[in-house]
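Repro:
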Amino acid sequence: MAYKNLRHFIEKLEQEGELVRIKEYVDPKLEIAEITDRVSKMPGGGKALLFENTGYDFPVLINSMGSYKRMCMALGVQELDDVAGEIEALFKMLSKPKESILDKLALLPKLGQFASWMPKVISGKGSCQEVVMASPDLNRLPVLTCWPKDGGPFITLPVIHTKDPVAGTRNVGMYRMQVFEKDMTGMHWHKHKVSAKHFMEYKKLNKRMPVAVVLGGDPVYTYSATAPLPENVDEYMLAGFLRKKKVELVKCITQPEIEVPADADFVIEGYVDPSEELIWEGPFGDHTGYYSLADWYPRFHVTAITHRKDAVYPSTIVGIPPQEDAWIGKATERIFLAPIKMTLVPEIINMEMPVEGVFHNLVIAQIKKDYAGQAQKVMNAMWGAGQMMFNKILVVSDEGAGITDYRQLAQYIFRNLNPATDIYLSQGPMDVLDHSCSKMGFGGKMCIDGTRKYEEETDNTYLQLPTPASLDTAAVMQQFPDIKGINSSLLAMDISCILVSVEKTRPFHVRELNEQLYALPAFAGIKMILYVEHTVDVTDLASALWRFCNNLDPKRDSFIINKPAAQAGKYIGGIGMDGTLKSRLLDNFERDWPNIIVADDDTIRKIDAKWASLQLGPFLASPSLKYKHQIYGEEAVVEQ
């Protein structure tokens, strides 16, 4: 369905019992984020929150898409897979041979539907332009400061519009915006993004780049701005398809080259001057659960701010998962399964992006396997597909196990896995936010082939030993005092993997420890050891895996073991992977390493005291308390 505006969506959320109005005063600086962090980590994502008393003229809506149900409501569907099914049916219809005139005529109604979804520029003003600020001032908006070491307040749900200066094609993306002055922000677009390419084209032409930023309107606009579409596909065509109604656009007042949705809540118009000096932007508590550190980015100068008379300011926070963005990512996972299957990987059955992998870090693909080497074929196809090029760890399975039951999946994968021959290491482009890479934006990748193996894929020089049912962890820790914790619970489930927390004190520490452990007879049947730093609680599997995935560069940090077996000419394979913090002193790692994101003690105390008046139900402790002992110093950058 198409929402008439953001308030229409709010009404629907309230009707469904999915919204809580908070009338108590709450400060947009740190307090809204702390409350939202507690609520969004509730089972199922908690409720959407509407803060009506922020000291500003506009209420703040947050966590509006922060559950499976609300994400479905935002897209107007009962199930996210419904969208993928519709896309797949369209692909099949369009690709089906048209042998008769009747076949061709049958297409006409669908082509008419296509036309009805295409965005349209209308004349006159839109409701987004009901009020024009006489003097544009971002300080009049309740822009959130989310975390204590953020560089300042950030606009976190900006739908940013740019155009190619040569082709005239539109791009709609989402990039955080740090507010520096009442009429100037940073523009945090990464070099891989389409808007950054537009910026470079304007730079070649020595021209100012018009930009418009939309906040609010139909929530489909926000989702479409995050969607991993090909460069030549208009995001508002996707929005029209999802809402089953074309997006009506109006020209901006001071930047008429740019058109924006007529029903948006706010429009911030302005320009980026490519000839101007960049600004030092950040840090920012990011979706990885770590701070993304300060760097140089373009300045965005505001020339106008317009808004609806009843405008609502939409926002979100990102940080240690799960947060609202996990559900937006889930929508992308389900919706874009069909295009991947129909255009790139026809053998794919299902895809899963576990929340611990924060999108790009960990992707699981299930395929219909028909021949040797098919997992590697899928690996190459997926790493060459749009934003999947940022994927760090790809796990490939087949029809032998479902991929949403992680226990069953892990059992199946480890039974099929020879760690010495079935793990493929590579290098390529990485997300700029990936702090584990030795060089920003370029690092290691890993594909774990957990499919059943054909004869051609099997190396008979390796023995496949049974998984030990247990491990004497106390004896191991006594022998190696640098080990501070071992989680061997997976062994009892026939999953041949353990987690080890280690306090590093010397160069090559993890590599050497891995060799020493695999030399022990008790480790002969253990295929994989995941190492994390000593502050991490390895008994908390989800948290430990989140830390591990963030800190690993698979090519640099993987240590494959080929241990001679007692049987002549035979070997036992194993692999250790170093998911610990990397430093200059011990790892020769030259980049700054970021801290994980936690709220400050003062904000936690304020919200504790205020909780009963918020009408949010039983008291919820701050999620940050769990991680306080895992930070290194008090700044965004780890103290070394």
